[in-house]
Amino acid sequence: MPLFFNRFVSHHIKVGDLSIIYPSGRRATFGNGTGRPIVLRITDTHTLWSLVSNPELAFGEAFMDGRLVLEEGDIYDFLELVFSNASVYSLTGPAKFSRWLTGLRRRFHQHNPVGRAKDNVAHHYDLDGSLYRLFLDSDSQYSCAYFESSDCSLEEAQLAKKRHLAAKLLIEPGQKILDIGSGWGGLGLYLAEMTDADVTGVTLSEEQFVISNEWAQTQNLADRARFHLKDYRHLNEQFDRIVSVGMFEHVGVGHYDEFFSQVRSLLKPDGVMVLHSIGVSDGPSHTNPWIHKYIFPGGYIPALSEVLPVIERQGLVVCDIEILRLHYAETLKAWRERFMARREEAVGLYDERFARMWEFYLASSESAFRHQGMMVFQIQLARKQTSVPLQRDYIQLAETRLREMECSLPAQISRAAE
After folding, report:
1. Looking at CB atoms within 10 Å, which of 30, 44, 197, 217 has the fewest?
2. Does pTM surpass 0.70?
3. How many degrees, rounded to 5, is the angle at CA 317 between CA 315 and CA 318?
4. How many CA atoms lie within 13 A of 91 on its CB side?
5. Tens-digit pLDDT profile for residues 28-58
6. End-to-end CA distance of the chain
7. Which domains, ranges and CATH numbers included, belong to the chain?
């Protein structure tokens, strides 16, 4: 088996310095010897077979179980080496067949009717809230931040993200705003505070539902910002503005027509929406099987080529598209470093295997954004093409105005997540 495994690894690792210690104690080296040395120990022969036959699932599981051990370097170093070397097109043999089979099942995995969608959300977002406070910013923004400069802190970048979205929404005082997938309420509360709008948020997470309403009360914003435990498909009123951040990844490709049809019915004739979602730049694919099984069941990262035709079919106008390339990589780096600094607290909340799972999740996600064609897109939509100014300078002007307002309201804008 080690000889066969050597050929498998040699096919994928051309650059770098990787050494593998087999269960027998034998050691093999791969790559061209450049970069940081990484030494990986595999504890049993069964793991070798699983890594060859289904590497996308098996690597994460082996790391979680302690069957794949980093003797030198850490899991991020290893994944960066693998992702920077390999593409999905380089898979061969059983691994290629396994990926093809996973692709066939993608429609089933992404079937997210109302009840199943709530269960999928609970799997990830209804974990102990203390876990997220280990690594998120004080506002509990669990989505891509917006780094206006290379020396931005996570706090500054998450605030900049909210400011950027608010600017694109063109909100006027008193307008009705809908936040689809409102999370812990940070964005909705920012919009209510900074624009004097009336905000409605919907989430399927019971944990987020409770906390977001508690924060609205704490900030004396409950009269302008309210959050409901409700599926967006059950709403039947209209809004001046709609925003959705980090929720579209949970819709599933088979539900895109349903999503944009509902958006159109919820949006007033002169309304504007901004959709912020993770995407891929190299065409339609499928959800990584480890991510599907352990992190985001029912989730899917779309290509723009899958999204734009549906928007057209549902009679919506694309007014603006912005691609945030490495912003999420930097966000995930900050999350990973914060998580690792408090890793023992995660072990205390759950156990060692759970902590390894989150370590792998954050490291693999960051590596994917740096080396595997993942990005974030923001699509500005309207029912009429005249709903948005013809030039984009209104975004910068609005951001400048919001930044000045933030300086006078520091406590409300940057609260501690208690």
Report:
1. 217
2. yes
3. 135
4. 17
5. 999 999 999 999 999 999 999 899 888 889 9
6. 52
7. 2-104 (3.30.1050), 114-413 (3.40.50.150)
